[in-house]
Every structure is written in structure tokens, then in C-alpha cells.
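re: ur question from yesterday

yeah so i grabbed the chain u mentioned. its 209 aa long if i counted rite. heres the sequnce exactly as i have it in my notes:
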Amino acid sequence: MKRWFVVSLLCLMVLAPLATSAQTTHFKFNQDGEFASFTQSTDPSSSLTLNVSRNASTGSATSASINYLSFNFNSDFTSLTIVQIVGAIPADSFSGQNTQNLALSLDMSQLDPSTSVSQTCTLDVITFDVTCGAGPTGSIQLNFRENGVTRTRILALGEEITVGPFTTRIHQRSDNSSATFSGTIFGTPVSGSATVGINHNSSMEYIRN
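ran it thru and got these C-alpha cells back, copy pasting raw so excuse formatting
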């Protein structure tokens, strides 16, 4: 936990100056339908969070959105790679008529740069030099299966995540169930525990100063 706190501070100090020369990007999605999410840290050097949701009524596939954030240290912890993918995705890339079986099949070439952001930033933790560029290529292929072992209800959640000049705000009301997931992310096999559910008048907002 302390390591990620230090990382956040480093990102704020190093990436914040980039905001002065960048044009503000701002988009917001109302999320009201099925969603699937997971957070995974396979070792102390990496962390990954993914959330995908429909932006319309339950059962409709008119639009969808994704929020993906990963942190990875190199082997000697001298550099940190941050991957961020957030924004609109094609409606048919998130499929399934209910929370029992949901699937995400997203190719990065399908992202619209006017309604999404995909970027990779590498931070040298020795010199504080940072290099940002285009996000990863390839695809995310995931299947989510509800198991119903635990069920929860979120009555009102407010969360703000800031990495340098990039801020993501999440407001959520939802009915949730435990699930499992498996698949590949940019060619790497992944699996584990997840959450699926129904969003009720939730929202995701992204701001890049």
C-alpha cells in the first residue's frame, strides 16, 4: 500500500507540469445497465483495474464505456509504466443479456479518439523523467460468469482518481454479485474473481487538463 501511495505522489509531481501545455479533454458517461469489473495484483510490482459498463437501460446495447488503469514496475523498480484506457467503446464489444454471462471483446483500433483516451506513460523513478505515448495495441477478450456467492448493494459511492493531470470521477449506485472472469489482455492470459451487476443512474467522468 505504501508503495502505491509513493507512486501516486511521484505521478502527481512529474506528470502535473504536462497539464499546462495540453488542451483540456472532458467527457462524461451515464451508466445505467449491466457492468463487470475486477481489480488484480498478481505480485507487488503490478496492479490492474478494469470496469466496463453499458450506458443505457438494462438489456440495451446502444452504448458502453470502459475504465482501465494498470501500473507495472520493471524488475529493479527503477521505472514505472502506467497504462490508461478510458472512454466510449463500441456497443457490441460488451455483450450479454444479463449478469449471468457477460463478455468484453474490444480491439484497440475500435476506439474513437474524440470520445476516449488510450495512453502509456513510463516514469523513471530515479530521474523523474516521464515519457507518454500511444496506448497498447491488440485486444481485450474477457468472459465474466456470475456465481452469486456474495451479493451487495451500493447505495451511493463517490470516487475520484487523479494521476497527474488526468482525473476520473465515479459515482455509482448498483446491485452487485460476485463472479469469475477469464480471458486475455493484450495477449496475456488472465483470470480471477470479479464483480458483475446492474448500474442505476451511475456515471463516469474523465478530465484531462
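noticed a couple things. The longest helix spans residues 2-15. also Helices lie at 2-15.
anyway ttyl
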